[in-house]
Amino acid sequence: MKRVVILGGGTGGTMMANRLVRALSPDWKIIVVDRDDLHVYQPGLLFLPFGTYRREETLKPRRALLDPRVELRLAEIDRIAPDEKSVALVGGSKLAYDVLIVATGSRILPEQTPGLLEEGWRKSAFDFYTLEGALALRDALASFAGGRFVVNVAEMPIKCPVAPLELLFLADAFFTERGIRDRVEIVYATPLEGAFTKPRASAALGGMLEQRNISVLGDFAVSEVDGAKRRLKSFDGRETDYDLLVSIPIHGGAQAISTSGLGDAGGWVPTDKHTLQSKSWPDVFVIGDATDLPSSKAGAVAHFQSEVLFDNVLRHIAGQPLSPGFDGHANCFIETGFGKAMLIDFNYTTEPLPGRFPLPGIGPFTLLEESEANHWGKLAFKWVYWNLLLAGKDLPLDHRMSMAGKWA
Questions:
Q1: Are residues 121 and 239 in the same domain?
Q2: Which domain does 381 fall in, by range?
Q3: pLDDT at 361 (0 to 100)
Q4: How many angstroms separate the CA atoms of 16 and 103, rounded?
Q5: Distance CA 13, CA 166 (A)
Q6: How many domains does the chain have?
Q7: If you write DSSP's letter for every residue of 69-106 in order, what string do you get?
Q8: Is position 347 within any domain?
Q9: What is the spatial distance between Cα 115 and Cα 152, in angstroms, rounded to a whole number?
Q10: Do 370 and 267 reside in the same domain of the chain?
Q11: Which of 53, 231, 316, 352 registers the highest number of CB atoms within 10 A of its CB?
Q12: Is it the case that residue 319 has pLDDT exceeding 80?
């Protein structure tokens, strides 16, 4: 029996397994490998610190999300041997494959910022990119009475580049609703020059931060955290104090990618930006955060990639040329607080533009503009994620970015 082995049972891996098992003949076996049976709805981690979601709303067993014909292998990956077309698992067993899909995602590396994990970690300094970190931050925010609240991005790239901005906006609303906003100074320390990577979106989001009296420390590359003094230091000598710090730590690819020699210095797999095939091994494909592509590491991007990757895996199996169909499409709701959100839609070559989405002139969502409809769209996505997206069902969204409804 031939095998498609998928490394990672997150968003990208689950979508691909469910689509491929329906499309391939019974002489193909689909195997998903992951370390545990716990699938985390990562967009929900943003809402946990503010009490919008409960812990149980963000978790489901991986097994329940996979087609019964898909084999779920719970094991740690030791090493990938693409020249041998096999994956070694911790414990000594090996999995041979005919096609390998790397969907190992990304991980946070707080230990790479000196001092971050020392005095004050999970007491005055937190992350929210993990379930444990988001829950610990929730408890800290509930008792925070005022002071200097600093959100710091240690280094790019990160998962969901807009998430730190969303946390800032939601914190502003949270402190306002608690009646303590006048006692809280909110600061965004970022290695970027401005609020975001795309100029037009950066200007719009930067203006919103200014309106909410949120200060931006741009070009701030953190070199050290002094937990005892509650102080951030940057490589250029600047320092900023905090009473409560939310860190978005350095991100890297999965450990197995680095130890196997499949990745670059950051642990990201060199991937063809249009076909999603490995640049080095034709039987290896990559999806989601694991790639080195110049696109956002976000669930919506993995969804658009899955449309192209599904087609290309079938083409590869059939011996047909691959389709260069992925255009870097990203589509992100940005929570802005007080029951509103913004939506941005862009790709490799086109930055976020104003307009209406998905129906030109109608919407119901507005692009590069706050609206209540966008907020409800963000919340509704949770149901879509659990019930449609992971199941690999067709959604009424083209994986390619459209200019319809946008204006320059």
A1: yes
A2: 330-389
A3: 84
A4: 9
A5: 26
A6: 3
A7: TSEEEE--EEEEETTTTEEEETTS-EEE-SEEEE---E
A8: yes
A9: 14
A10: no
A11: 352
A12: yes
